[in-house]
Sequence to fold (474 residues):
Amino acid sequence: MVRTTGTEGSLKDDGSVGAVSQLTDDEKAEKVLASSKAHRAVIIVFVSLLIDLIAFTCILPLMPSILDFYGKTDREGLYGSLLRPVRAFRRLVGAPNTARFDIVLFGGLIGSLFSFLQFLCSPMIGSLSDVYGRRPVLLVSMAGIALSYAVWAISRNFTWFVVARIVGGISKGNISLSTAIVTDATSLKTRGRGMALVGVAFSIGFIVGPIMGAVFSRYTPAADVDSASYPFAGAALFALCLAVADVIFLGVFFEETLPEAKRTQSTRGSFAETWHLISPLSLFQFSAMNTLPRADLKRVRIIGFSYFLYLLLFSGLEYSLTFLTHERFHYTGMEQGKMFLFIGIIMIFTQGGYVRRRPFGSELQTAIQGIAILMPGMIMVGFAEGRGLLFTGLALYSFGAGTVVPSLTAIISQYGSDAEKGRIMGIFRSLGALSRALGPGLACTIYWNFSAVTCYLCGALLLIVPLFMLKLVK
Fold:
């Protein structure tokens, strides 16, 4: 189906380049050492991502309270300036005129800003790692994330909170770098398992982090407008401590996975033209990957656009789940937390128990099956009037969601030379970030102008487009 241009990572399943029937003792030792280093690199990436995602997601349960706090303390400042267009958007899409929905939409705006910054910066960060190596760029990225939490800890003013999110969004290149590292360290046959482990880190992080945030929410003192203290400093310092620990962990244990001999020799060669890494059209065309054969470039473009469409629809429906469960089932924040815990547990078992065991070469079929399973799940959620149908749909949704992204990531990592892996993974990640920036607004517009059923039915049916596009990949 696909092929790679250039050499592959350090872990080769057959231990040889050609047809070699016998290995010398030195070759056997070298093979074992390479396998050990590759396994170690993947485990370090998993632990680092897990620490990072726990820190990143602990803010999620606190976001409504944080925005409510700034609504009381910064109404005449930046918060008030941004609240006006949020309310205009609420009126445009027909959402209920309540403070709760203002906060949910405001949180969506902050999340979209974060994702848009990732869209801009991920290709640049990936390309820099092709030139200077994964380790230094990853450490700088993680240091930037730690800085964002430090700024959050002192954000008594909403402007500083936005600055913290901007710093975090610009620095959040560790995800695409982690997939590039997994690509460096694994062979084609083992890469799917490595990408699935990245997915497991996401699922666990998105369970543990919000639980920690809920704990902080419970013990956070009531917001005092006249107080000089910041009530959310405890959660921010917790995230900061995790980020600093992550930097130290990587500094001590992580070894470079892209040797100098395999790197792009200059930023000029790595960036090709800077415009190719910041222009949306160029990113969809993968124009920076100008060394790929024409047939490979065509496949990459199909996979990238399919990934964008899938996440555009998925992220919108995921975001609107909070609206649906609150409006139809009167879920509280705690009940919604339990719902997302249910989703996360299924995704952990899907990625760790199913996707990791899928044989090499089945990644495309796994992604297609995942989308096909996700579609009826979304329809069930949209039509659900009782919890039985809702959770049946969510189970299918979770299983499908747990398969698609790891599989597509494993496929896209097969393209390009060793010196281009950071670039291609950065571009791929940026397309996903753009879809997450646009998806919630699109889903909200359909949800409130028409109905929940229309939103979920249209989203599920439109998933046919990326499904059939992926079938075109040969």
